[in-house]
Amino acid sequence: MANRFGVKLQSRLPNLAGIYPFSAPITTTTNCSSETQKSRIVCKKRALGCRFPRRVVLGIGVSFWSQFMSMAGIIGGKSFMASARRKGAIEQVLKNVEWPEQFPFRDEDFQRFDESSDTLFYEMPRFVTHIDDQAIAALTKYYSEVFPSSNTPGVAVLDMCSSWVSHYPSGYKQERIVGMGMNEEELKRNPVLTEYVVQDLNINPQLPFGDNTFDVITNVVSVDYLTKPLDVFKEMSRVLKPGGLAIMSFSNRCFFTKAISIWTSTGDADHVMIVGSYFHYTGGFEPPQAVDISPNPGRSDPMYIVYSRKLATA
Predict the structure, then answer these.
(1) Measured in Å, how far apart are the chain's first and last C-alpha atoms?
(2) Over the stretch 229-241, which tens digit does the pLDDT of each residue have?
(3) What are 233-267's pLDDT values in tens digits?
(4) For a Cys staple, 300 with which of 1, 233, 274, 296, CB 3.0–4.6 Å?
């Protein structure tokens, strides 16, 4: 059975007047670390949940995916978020989706609680990790399974929204591995990069690279900060080689005040659908797919992948 993204949802996604049933609350990395950045950003106080409300002006979002699943009678009245905890459920989110004709999100869905300059926010380097060690290990293992072999002639990799670490396999090398990020000191410390670019994609989403340049593009726990995602994904499509792979990885950890509103008001399964929609509405990509690589559900940070390949030319 196709996953109909539409029905009521075609007219408006999500229903901002409703109430979203958080079963896996968004946590903030900002309030769980000191200003001196001496501690890890990831909040360890899971008992508290680090719950935060969405901005009042936009209301409290509904999980549009669980809404649809309920309407379709697939899981009855139960939240899809609860169902998504089952092994393999996340992988089904992007299967046979019947997408609305038009991109279903509005400008206000990409607003943030803190609309001050991102350059100022990222001015001070943060030499910390944003997901726990088990999630990092799971991501590194995934990369080892899908990346081109180390030192493959002609291979180029772009790590978008990069920092002082990219979580690539130990010793991984290519002739060209480019990092794009917001803090030069962090990028300078990244041992895997052969070069780097400091750029705010929310101000200038145009990538300073030629067409058909990269074999792989990665983005780790930062897709939720993009305020112009379709512009960025169009640029990703342009700079990827035909058949090139784009890997968006994310958890439920974030700088809450800088994440887009549609992200902070929804849950994990919804995030998969949101990122999948970026690939779909950009065009030029194969149908996106989702993978749940969470290493220890309920006891470590969840970790999800949404990936796609640029369509090969005829």
Answers:
(1) 31
(2) 999 999 999 999 9
(3) 999 999 999 999 999 999 887 666 778 999 988 88
(4) 296
Cα angle 48, 130, 179 (rounded to 5 degrees) comes to: 160
Q: Residue 248 has what DSSP assignment? A: E
Structural contact between residues 66 and 79, judged by C-beta atoms closer than 8 angstroms? yes
d(CA 314, CA 312): 6
Dist CA 255 CA 260 (whole Å): 10
Of 61, 87, 82, 58, nearest to 70 (Cα)? 82
Token pair of 201 as six digits: 């994609």
Question: How many CA atoms does the CB half-sphere of 155 hold within 13 Å?
Answer: 16
Rounded distance between C-alpha atoms, residue 77 and residue 274, angstroms: 22
Closest among 140, 149, 217 to 177, alpha carbons compared? 217
User: Which residues make Cβ contacts (< 8 Å) with residue 110, sequence separation at least 6?
Assistant: 226, 227, 228, 229, 260, 261, 262
Confidence of residue 30 (pLDDT cuts 50, 70, 90): very low
Chain centroid to CA 8:
26
Q: What is the pTM of this model?
A: 0.76
DSSP-assigned states of every residue in 10-51: GT-SS-TTS----SS--EESSTTS-TT--S-SS---TTTTT-
